[in-house]
Amino acid sequence: MVKTILITGGSRGIGRATAIMAGRRGWSVGVNYAGNEKAAQDTVRAVQQAGGKAIAIRGDVAVEADVIAMFDAVENTFGRLDGLVNNAGIVAPTADLADMSVERLKRLFDINILGSVLCAREAARRLSTRRGGQNPGRGGAIVNLSSAAARIGSPNLFVDYATSKGAIDTLTIGLSKELGPEGIRVNAVRPGIIETDIHASAGEPDRATRLGPTAPLGRAGTADEVAEAIIWLLDDASSYVNGALLDVAGGR
Ligand code: NAP
Predict the structure, then answer these.
(1) To test ligand 1's pocket by mutation, which of 198, 199, 204 has the most ligand atoms within 8 angstroms of CB?
(2) Distance between CA atoms of 135 and 126, rounded to whole angstroms?
(3) C-alpha distance across the termini of the chain, in Å
């Protein structure tokens, strides 16, 4: 079935790859971004060239009003919503916990945890078959972006980031049980080391090249390889999959 989805952080990396893959299926995509307007517009064009529809929606997932506005924009433009890819996430420069400032911790938890929870809440309100009164939701799917870091813990690198992804796993487990009866499947994808811009934010742009070969599959993954899993979890092909934490980490 052709779907309408919102991808937070859809302008670059894994979100962008997912948007373009959705476009190839003829889906409609809300491409949320934080500030990189050029990247967002480029992704919108790529989705359209792939055969889908898309709009760029600026908004910070850590700001409640922005989250509500981005869901409104998708529903007002495309007339429906079938799924959320809870993808926006950040990492901060590599450090030991003892050296991390409270400002860093708050910003990271605001985006990675609060932002994901707010977006999931908004999706639940709009998709639930038990909500909406005379005009109930049609159900749908939420895919949360966790990380292999939730399992590994990332000591001496970014324990804060790993902690935030542990929260995403727990969110996925809890919501899959809470929302399953309301027609919404909730799953998570846990990527390993994937070639995107995120490693530059940690102060190591070539991290994927350096550490990729240490994975059992001998290389870093691509954003497309993660997008394949996300699209499958959104699609009806995975109709009995709920509460799964799917590792896309080359065996790491
Ligand atoms: P990326 O290339 O750094 O892209 C990040 C995206 O998130 C951009 O579109 C950015 O928008 C957006 N964003 C950042 N802060 C935001 C905010 N406050 N509100 C809305 N959007 C925001 O990241 P990525 O590597 O694709 O990672 C995507 C997800 O996968 C993240 O949750 C990450 O933790 C997870 N993950 C990645 C890896 C990996 O190795 N790459 C591994 C495991 C998990 P702008 O373009 O406007 O800046």
Answers:
(1) 198
(2) 10
(3) 33
Evaluated on CA atoms 60, 63, 64, 69, the torsion sign reads negative
Whether residue 161 lies in the annotated active site: yes
Q: At 125, which amino acid appears?
A: R
Q: Spot the catalytic one: 17, 70, 161, 162.
A: 161
pTM for the whole structure: 0.98
Q: 51 pLDDT band (50/70/90 cuts)?
A: very high
Q: Name which residue sits closest to atom 18 of ligand 1, judged by CA.
A: 60
Distance separating alpha carbons of residues 235 and 94, to the nearest angstrom: 36
User: What strand order describes the sheet that includes 83-86?
Assistant: 53-58, 28-33, 4-7, 83-86, 140-145, 184-191, 245-248
Q: What type of residue sits at position 136?
A: P
| Domains contained in the chain, CATH given | 4-248 (3.40.50.720)
Tally of helices (H runs) and strands (E runs) in the chain: 10, 7
